[in-house]
Design brief:
The model has no long low-confidence stretch (mean pLDDT 95). The protein has a 5-stranded parallel β-sheet with strand order 2-3-1-4-5, with helices on both faces. Helix 3 packs across helix 4 and helix 6 crosses helix 7. The protein has one domain: P-loop containing nucleotide triphosphate hydrolases (Rossmann fold, 3-Layer(aba) Sandwich). The chain contains 8 helices and 5 strands; from the N terminus they run βαβαααβαβααβα. It is an enzyme of class 2 (transferase).
């Protein structure tokens, strides 16, 4: 089984993915880590040196590579990955694949991103008083693609273990 986790930045895709993979004895793959390893440079350096269009094409190619090489894994996508290059159609088109949207409210995302701003290039320079509105607009733009996931799990105020239990009930 292939499980693909998607959602907005700071939604917990990697944290949930690692625990879920361990519980199900599946390999865990973080798409950003995969790309960084392949290019031997950080995502922010790839963006800076090659541009966003190049990066988005690399995400698409990396998804295809991962799906061609493995038939069992938990894959955590970057927050923007579902929104480019028909990636959701690609992912949902593979057999034995369950895409899952980790869904959080805007206030929860705001709270998480506020404490992680310096590690998130997309929001690092947004003033605190404008951050919630930025998230709301950005999430609105991306929600069409996120909603293409086969399953949705709302995780506000939920412990990781409870989210994992809910996902396991949905998929297994």
């Amino acid at each position: 089984m292939r499980i693909v986790l998607l959602g907005y930045m700071a939604s917990g895709k990697s944290t949930i993915g690692k625990v879920l993979a361990k519980n199900q004895n599946l390999p865990f793959i973080d798409l950003d880590d995969y790309i960084e390893s392949k290019f031997e440079k950080s995502i922010s350096d790839i963006f800076k040196d090659e541009g966003e269009i190049f990066f988005r094409l690399q995400e698409h190619e990396a998804i295809k590579e991962i799906f061609e090489k493995q038939d069992k894994f938990v894959l955590s996508l970057g927050g923007g990955t579902p929104c480019y290059a028909n990636n959701m159609d690609l992912i949902n088109g593979f057999e034995n694949t369950n895409s899952l949207y980790i869904k959080l409210s805007i206030p929860t995302l705001y709270k998480r991103l506020l404490s992680q701003k310096e590690n998130r290039p997309l929001v690092a320079n947004i003033p605190e008083e404008e951050l919630q509105e930025f998230i709301a607009k950005h999430l609105f733009e991306r929600s069409y693609f996120y909603e293409m996931a086969k399953y949705k799990v709302r995780t506000d105020n939920q412990k990781v273990e409870d989210t994992i239990s809910e996902i396991q009930e949905l998929l297994f």
